[in-house]
Amino acid sequence: MHITMEPVIKSVTQTCSGQEVAVSLSQCSALVSACQSFGVEGYRVVDYTTNGFLSRYLPIQIPHTPMLVYRGQYLIPLVFRRGTGCEELWNQAPRREAFFLLLDWYLRYEPETIVTKYRLMDDEEGRFRLKILDSAWIAFRLQELIHCGCYQLKDCPSKEHFIQWNQESRLIQSPLIGRHSPVLDLENRKTVAECLLFFQILQLFFPEAPLCHELQLEKVG
């Protein structure tokens, strides 16, 4: 089934910009089936209150929002900003896999960036709490990595060339290092993990790209 995005018609607080789109409720079961191998266990429909990337950090409430249940701990809202590749995301297998790779990276290294709030749910065993993720931000960042990174670097010959390219593009930035520093801090575990994540995503789209075979990085100044 081809997953389609529908406009978000109404917000309870009337602050939607008209640029929000969501997966159709009638297609959620098909999407769950397509994403089960990544840890998706089902979906829920809930009223979604957020002040995250979706709403440009202004508070909005969207009723009847479909959300994927991920690994029994998280809710992934299926509502996004128009123009962030969200329809391609759910219809192209490489993008779907890349989305969950990126999501897992954020949960490990920057959970504060994507965990926006908690939601109490009920089932036969009682109440439990799920963390709601900023899926709109993840979709935007993935679009950035693909279009500003993968397509630019599919013919990149070496990790040294990648590091030099990144100094200008700032696709990946090292924490605690000045904006104009010539060094990508590859002694920082998080920075190395983000670079290797990018190589994984690159491989999904361009499996023959030379950078796909880089399994370790060394500091280059």
From TrEMBL:
Top-level division of the source organism's lineage: Bacteria
Protein name listed in UniProt: Uncharacterized protein
Organism per entry: Enterococcus asini ATCC 700915
Lineage: Bacteria, Bacillati, Bacillota, Bacilli, Lactobacillales
